[in-house]
Amino acid sequence: MIFEQLFDTKSSTYTYIISSGKGREALIIDPVIEHSDEYLKVLKNLELKLVKVIDTHIHADHVSGLNELNKRTNCTRIMGERSKSEVIDLKIKDSEKIEIENIKLEAMYTPGHTDCSYSYLMNDRVFTGDTLLINGTGRTDFQSGSPHDAYDSLFNRLLKLPENTLVYPAHDYNGKKNSTIENERNNNPRLQVSSKEEYAEIMNNLNLSNPKMMDIAVPANLKGLTLDQL
Ligand SMILES: [Fe+2]
Question: Measuring CA to CA, which residue among 109, 5, 12, 11 is closest to residue 56?
Fold first, then answer.
């Protein structure tokens, strides 16, 4: 299997390029628009055909590469059915599967960071977007976020996955590349709570400032802008 984890230093975003092998179909999760050329170069070097691109949610800290990649490769843009994007080609439901040659991803609706947040389970690993981060969890104070929904997504969905499931988040701010469900359950400070109310109390008192790119990124991602439209 080809599994490339790329990093955007500006927004600390992880992007994933996945394929069953050289010369086969590929999909990309959470691309950042400024790196479109770099992704296309990786695809070319491995003779991959990009057929699907997925955003885990509408990002507020960077402009998504979905639309630029769609323009240049005609790949299918995918998000969960709750996405408010105006340009998504395929909106999928909880438990639905996304397939390319020999690769299968199962969508899990995991709202809370936003109401359009989905995670994607692929065999031994799960792409958690901003729902579950390494030693952290996604903020819940904008884009229809809800700490109560986040608690349910974390405790009743993601943490119920097998404990050795690898966790691949949409961001990391400390250079960590992956974790496991077991490690997060035992060590993630946000998850050491005994009730939904306790979790909501923590999340409602983070007092974070808005992401710098928010006013540009959110409208651009809802409208589906490409590089020449930014
Ligand atoms: Fe986010």
Answer: 109
